[in-house]
């Protein structure tokens, strides 16, 4: 009985001591917990304040951006309105009326000018056809004005054979280099390469031996004579320059294309009445053809156009 009571007393004493230790530890930790809680509250408040500040800055930036966009749209609209007003004022004013009248005359001038260029090109083609045949064109392209001689034919054959053998020899060299990694086949290709190279050199030498220099010089002379004859007739060689036509007027081609487009495009040039060039200064004067020319049709047109005006 006494032992049981003693154990109970000891147990209660131990529990009391543990409770006292817990109490003291809690009292010791309480200031730290309170400080931590206070710090957490302050941190939460600061975070909330920072979020509110960031949201405010973002809202101000969005408002500023939207205001900039609105100002830009307003500026564009004002600029477009000012441009439209300026164009309307010009179009219905004396400068606009003067430009429309001028443009009609410039367009008619351009049409007549283009018609003359077309007539000159057609007349020149007919004049050329009287002196230049299809045979002339074929000989000019091939640079062969007489049949090849027997020597020249042999030279051509040997030359083609030499080129073929040299090309084949080059191919053999490549194959030889590839199979040179395999010793059993290395020596078998070498004689083939030597034979092909020798035949190619021999063929080239034969092509030089059979080369007919007299025939070649005759063709060169005939080619030069044909160019000289056509140049004397037309002022240039119409076969060598198929897109060229003789110069039919004096002066520079009028810049009417530029002025005809003044009203086009978003950035308009609005010329004043005094800025418009006088169309009569564009009048082309027919050119004089060289003596001994072979262009009677072109000459007749130039004679017909003398004293006539393209200005309406």
Structural features, described:
The chain has 2 domains: 1-92; 94-149 and 212-305, no CATH class. The protein has a two-stranded antiparallel sheet with strand order 1-2. It has 312 residues and is an all-alpha fold. It has helices spanning 2-91, 94-131, 134-142, 150-179, 183-209, 213-234, 256-260, 296-305, and strands at residues 249-250, 285-286. It is elongated. Helix 2 runs antiparallel to helix 8 and helix 4 (150-179) packs antiparallel against helix 5 (183-209).
Strand tally is 2
What's the Cα radius of gyration? 51 Å
Largest sheet: 2 strands, antiparallel
The termini sit apart by: 148 Å
* Percent of residues in helices: over 70%
Summed up, the helix count is: 8
Describe the strand arrangement of the main beta sheet, using strand numbers: 1-2
Low-confidence stretches at least 5 residues in length (pLDDT < 50)? Answer: 262-267
The rough form would be described as elongated
Write down the domain tally.
Answer: 2
Give the topology string: H per helix, E per strand: HHHHHHEHEH
Mean pLDDT, all residues: 77
Structural class: mainly alpha
Percentage beta strand: under 5%
């Amino acid at each position: 009985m006494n032992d049981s009571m003693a154990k109970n007393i000891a147990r209660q004493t131990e529990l009391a001591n543990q409770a006292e230790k817990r109490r003291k530890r809690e009292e010791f930790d309480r200031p730290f917990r309170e400080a931590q809680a206070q710090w957490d509250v302050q941190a939460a408040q600061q975070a909330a304040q920072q979020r509110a500040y960031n949201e405010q800055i973002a809202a101000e930036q969005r408002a500023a951006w939207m205001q900039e966009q609105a100002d830009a749209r307003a500026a564009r609209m004002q600029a477009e309105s000012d441009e439209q007003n300026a164009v309307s004022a010009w179009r219905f004013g004396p400068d606009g009326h003067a430009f429309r009248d001028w443009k009609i005359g410039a367009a008619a001038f351009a049409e007549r000018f283009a018609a003359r260029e077309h007539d000159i090109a057609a007349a020149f083609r007919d004049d050329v056809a009287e002196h230049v045949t299809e045979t002339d064109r074929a000989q000019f392209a091939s640079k062969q004005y007489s049949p090849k001689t027997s020597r020249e034919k042999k030279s051509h054959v040997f030359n083609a054979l030499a080129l073929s053998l040299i090309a084949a020899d080059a191919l053999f060299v490549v194959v030889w280099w590839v199979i040179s990694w395999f010793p059993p086949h290395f020596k078998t290709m070498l004689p083939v390469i030597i034979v092909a190279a020798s035949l190619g050199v021999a063929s080239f030498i034969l092509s030089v031996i059979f080369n007919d220099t007299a025939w070649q010089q005759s063709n060169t002379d005939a080619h030069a004579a044909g160019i000289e004859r056509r140049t004397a007739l037309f002022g240039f060689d119409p076969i060598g320059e198929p897109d060229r036509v003789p110069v039919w007027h004096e002066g520079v081609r009028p810049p009417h294309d530029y002025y005809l487009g003044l009203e086009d495009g978003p950035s308009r040039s609005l010329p004043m009445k005094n800025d418009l060039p006088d169309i009569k200064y564009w009048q082309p004067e027919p050119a004089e053809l060289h003596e001994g020319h072979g262009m009677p049709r072109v000459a007749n047109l130039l004679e017909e156009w003398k004293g006539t005006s393209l200005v309406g």
